Sequence to fold (600 residues):
Amino acid sequence: MTNPVSADRPAATSDRPGRRPRPGFGRRDSIVGWLLIAPALVYFVAFLLYPAVAALYYSFTDWNLRSSPSWVGLANYTDLLFDDVKFPHFWKSVQVSLLYTVVAVPLTLVAALGQALLINAIRRGSNLFRLLLFLPVVTAEAAVGAIWRWLYDPQYGLINIILGWFGVPPQNWLNNPDLVIPALAFISAWQCGISMIIYLAGLKGIPLSLREAAIIDGAGPVQRFRKVVMPMLRPTTFYLLVTGVIAALQVFGLVYVIFSAANKSVTGGPEQAGLTYVLHLYLFAFRYDAMGAACAMSFILLVFIMIITALQFKFVKQEAA
Amino acid sequence: MRNVRLAPIYIALILLAAISVVPFIWMLSTSFKHGHDVYTKVPSLLPLDRKTGEWSPTLENYEYVFDLRGLGTAFLNSVWVCLILIPAKLLIDALAAYAFARIPFPGRDKLFVLMLGGMMVPTITLLVPRVFVTQELGLFDSQWGLIVPNIASVLDIFLLRQFFLSLPGDLEEAARIDGAGRIQIFWRIIVPLSKPVLSVVTITSFIFHWNDLVWPLVVLNDPEKYTLPLALQQLATAEAGRSYYIMAGAAVAVVPVIAVLLVFQRRILQGIAFSGLKS
Fold:
């Protein structure tokens, strides 16, 4: 990757009289530059920078959208963490999101790697398979939720019917607290197409000479995979792991669709088994009108994501050393 | 010999492709079935009559969700929002990326790093204050409230800038000596050379905003203004248990995006690999 802030060609202005001035980087450039950036900059300040600062401020206040915020210090944070009368499901939602992440991310990565290895092994038809396996990715969350509710239908859903052919008794996937997370994780693995494409790019990047050398040394397919392919794919896996964890911790739209369709009012599924952290956050912000608490939750999430990402980087550095 | 070795690989791929595609076929077939043909013990991937087994598709589910469940309006709303938002966003992003890549001015690189840093903040953290800003601007519960708060994208600016940096500078240099201004250079040289990356950004933006549920969910109240994902979510809640209506609604949301994917598959898949590896 090129350095994101690599410098341009050095500025050279010459105003020697009698010569046509070389096209230079002067005042005019400054004006044009700022003008071109201005719309993006306004957006950045209004919808990124200011909201980030405001979210931090509001997290220390008691606030709904109608009243003006009143300062309460750390009360939102301490209540969320310790007051299980005011926020009875906070820790439950943390647990749900962590469990979902721990189940869904590895499952998705394994599915993606498996698909990429298979596609990489063939010539004819590889574009077609790549396309078909990518279809679920471009599908709207609302549609994914609707389709999978129908597939998971306990009585007439395709999943139970197909499992029935193999003698598996019908399951009430989305109403059994123990099955909610596996059911959601399977949808996540179904949508592994982006990771698959990135793995495929990683596989193409492995020099052919390395594989050939391994074959000459008499390494079988399993050994080649473990000793050549996996180490070469480590940066890709790490990237997908970090982004996958960050995305999984924020899963919201899908569970919102799935569990609002079930109960008309969103509660997060049977025994809150599908009450992910961000669904919980959404409910506080937009149903219970507790914006301050919701902002505090969003900052706890931000800090948590930063810690997890830092830990993952540290872990990989240690592995490399 | 080679074919024998490859056979298991193809079988595995066909199975995986079936898992990925059958849900869509199931969606389509359910959406074309009469209500009384949907709930059968033996699943049928084709819209057949449950008693006679004859071919009997219907469009009544589509008519119902379009006319009585507001999906027609929602479809037009989605089209309208994308028609305004995507070109505006592309222009703003490309101009900013061009300046970041090519026009040196004091403070430019610091600003760019600051923007990249801002991209690291999870969107969920920004959700509540963004709604507040939208409300303060008087855009709450309006389609401009879907457009203005999404009018630029730091990620797209980053991708476009990286591409512009990779373009050779000679042509620009020559144009400048001929007296062309920055804007002229942008339109006459940069844009024509950047068609591949511009189309990737356009297509991925379209897919993202066409599919987006969360932002319309928090900004819109009036059902007349709903975009497709939101209308579909409402449909799925209101008609829970009538999967033929819900699947017709889902098909309306899904089919345009799949059409775009089929037409632009090469660009999209290359773009994913590119942007995935860069970021």
Notes: Residues 164 and 194 of chain B are 8 Å apart (CA to CA). The mean pLDDT of chain B is 89. Chain B has two domains: 2-58, 70-278.
